[in-house]
Amino acid sequence: MKTQKDADAVILTIIPEEYEEILAAIGNTARAELGGTNNL
Question: What domain of life does the UniProt record list for this protein's source (predicted)?
């Protein structure tokens, strides 16, 4: 099974320009799952 470490390792192989966008997407997803108020 994939672990969180595996997932992190895959993310870290992505070029830096895409990394920020992915972090933002992950952050938005996390806020949505937590019922955050920053959703558009």
Answer: Bacteria
